[in-house]
């Protein structure tokens, strides 16, 4: 299997794994301890690695969302908790989720090492959200470490994809409307604010998806065949464990 095939093999499942803790009862409950609703904790917890920045900076790293929604949730969140503290609390929720779901899985140490090799090889220029999260410490226990690495790997692809979307000249909200047409309102866009995608928009989005893989390919290419297999096996095992847990 070549690097491009490895990138594609883990893309969707990594996205599912890395986001699996976002709105669990445990994560939402932890946010409520700080007076934060679920979406407030999500925005300031996920974006808190950027520091105490202005909402526009958070939007530039997230994309997709209505900037007004980011402003409301980010400013409301940092009235309750400092962004860096929120990030560490949010990341701790991710680690707890991994410990709860992955305790019985084999091969996680090899998965963690393979992902770290990718991170060491990537040029993270322009990938602010990924770089911020990558700078946070990896837990010492394999279940939490594996979830942590999957979460960071998700942000790597997300950051690369935003770069690719910009490169093809497609607004991120349009890319989002193409991929998740039923979720546009959830991201703060009112009915009629987002145009229907054209054939040209769809073609640009497809090109951006291919470009995302091209951006990531050199870093994945550093993996040996055994490391690539460990990456895929770990991804598949975690994804199956999350699905079996409901």
Order of helices and strands: HHHHHHHHHHHH
What is the distance, rounded to the nearest whole angstrom, between the alpha carbons of the first and last residues?
31 Å
Mean pLDDT: 96
Largest sheet: none
Question: Topology of this structure?
Answer:
Layout: H1 3-18, H2 25-32, H3 38-47, H4 55-62, H5 67-78, H6 83-102, H7 108-121, H8 128-134, H9 142-168, H10 172-179, H11 199-220, H12 225-245
List keywords for this structure.
12 helices, globular, mainly alpha, 246 residues
Structural write-up:
The protein has 246 residues and is mostly helical. The chain is 70% helix and 0% strand. It contains twelve helices and no strands. It has helices at residues 3-18, 25-32, 38-47, 55-62, 67-78, 83-102, 108-121, 128-134, 142-168, 172-179, 199-220, 225-245. The protein is globular, with a radius of gyration of 18 Å. The model has no long low-confidence stretch (mean pLDDT 96).
A few lines on this structure:
With 246 residues, the protein is an all-alpha fold. The chain has 12 helices and no strands.
């Amino acid at each position: 299997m070549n690097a491009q095939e490895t990138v594609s093999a883990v893309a969707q499942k990594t996205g599912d794994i890395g986001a699996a803790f976002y709105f669990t009862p445990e994560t939402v409950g932890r946010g409520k301890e700080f007076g934060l609703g679920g979406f407030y904790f999500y925005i300031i917890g996920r974006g808190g690695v950027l520091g105490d920045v202005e909402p526009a900076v958070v939007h530039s790293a997230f994309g997709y969302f209505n900037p007004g929604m980011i402003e409301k949730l980010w400013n409301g969140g940092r009235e309750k908790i400092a962004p860096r503290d929120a990030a560490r609390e949010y990341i701790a929720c991710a680690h707890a989720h991994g410990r709860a779901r992955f305790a019985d899985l084999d091969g996680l140490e090899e998965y963690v090492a393979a992902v770290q090799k990718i991170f060491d090889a990537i040029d993270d220029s322009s990938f602010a959200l990924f770089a911020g999260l990558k700078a946070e410490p990896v837990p010492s226990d394999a279940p939490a470490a594996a979830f942590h690495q999957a979460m960071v790997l998700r942000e790597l692809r997300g950051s690369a994809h935003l770069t690719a979307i910009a490169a093809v000249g497609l607004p991120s909200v349009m890319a989002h409307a193409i991929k998740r047409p039923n979720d546009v309102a959830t991201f703060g866009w009112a009915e009629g604010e987002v145009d229907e995608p054209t054939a040209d928009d769809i073609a640009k989005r497809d090109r951006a998806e291919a470009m995302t893989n091209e951006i990531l390919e050199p870093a994945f290419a550093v993996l040996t065949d055994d490391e690539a297999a460990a990456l895929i096996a770990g991804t598949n095992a975690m994804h199956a464990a999350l699905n079996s847990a409901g």
